[in-house]
Structures are given as C-alpha cells and as structure tokens.
C-alpha cells in the first residue's frame, strides 16, 4: 500500500487471525498542539484492517472497504501508535474486522470497525 508506506506504516505481524502494524508519531503527521492527525490514525486502522481482510479472502478474490467507523478516545502526542486487527466476521460477500489502536503503553487511543466487500471475478 504505497500511501500507508509513505506515512511510515510498518507491519510487525500478519496472519488471518491477527494483523499488527505501527506508526511512529512525527511532527509532519500532526495537527495543532502536536497531536497525531486523525487522518494518520485512520490510515493506520484502514491499512491494518484491509490487510486482515485480504488474508481472509478466498483464492483469486479482492477486497474494498465499504464501511469504516472510528471512535477516538485520546490523543497521541508522542511515541508509537500500534494497531491490532482481528476478523469479527468472514463471510462469502463481506468481511468485518475490528482494529484496536493503542499507544506505546497499551492505552487505547481509538477503535475502528470496518467492513470489506469480497470481490470475485
């Protein structure tokens, strides 16, 4: 994913059951007051969830996000943002994943639930 890679998103683990990624806080990714921009947070969540969905696809299928909702609980002003995605539902036409967004100490920064369409030829 070129956009996620350009932001510095890194994959630390990936399996159909769980995907882990991370993004370091950086001033160029912030809003006023040194807070990591919500768009950067959502990019990490979307990329992580998409990888998780992709790993659960049948052979030859593709995927596209059809719905995504993020709740923000606290700001990230330093350190690394960690994302952990797990499938909630793997169906024939849709895959729903849940992504927890955590700071370096494990405190929850946010939570994303997204649905990916299963695209077959």
Instruction: Describe the sheet with the most strands.
Output: 6 strands, antiparallel
* Beta-strand content estimate: 35-45%
* Low-confidence region ranges: none
* Estimated helix fraction: 10-25%
- Derived from helix and strand composition plus strand pairing, the structural class reads alpha+beta
Number of strands: 6
CATH third-level topology: Thiol Ester Dehydrase, Chain A
Number of helices: 2
Give the domain tally.
1
Outline type: elongated
CATH level-4 homologous superfamily: Hotdog Thioesterase
**Radius of gyration from the CA trace?**
14 Å
Instruction: Give the terminus-to-terminus CA distance.
Output: 22 Å
Please report the first level of CATH classification, the CATH class: Alpha Beta
Q: Mean pLDDT, as a whole number?
A: 96
Can you name the CATH architecture?
Answer: Roll
Q: Give the topology string: H per helix, E per strand.
A: HEEHEEEE
Main sheet strand line-up = 1-2-4-5-6-3
Protein name: PaaI family thioesterase
InterPro entries: HotDog_dom_sf, PAAI_dom, Thioestr_dom
Keywords: Hydrolase
Domain Thioesterase: 33-107
């Amino acid at each position: 994913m070129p956009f996620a890679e350009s932001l510095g998103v890194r994959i630390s683990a990936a399996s159909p059951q769980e995907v882990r990624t991370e993004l370091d806080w950086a001033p160029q990714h912030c809003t006023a007051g040194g807070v990591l921009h919500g768009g950067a947070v959502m990019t990490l969540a979307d990329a992580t969830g998409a990888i998780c969905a992709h790993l659960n696809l049948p052979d030859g299928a593709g995927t596209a996000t059809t719905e995504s909702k993020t709740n923000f609980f606290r700001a990230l002003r330093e350190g690394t943002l960690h994302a952990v995605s797990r499938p909630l539902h793997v169906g024939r036409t849709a895959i729903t994943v849940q992504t927890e967004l955590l700071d370096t100490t494990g405190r929850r920064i946010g939570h994303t639930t997204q649905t990916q369409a299963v695209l077959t030829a």
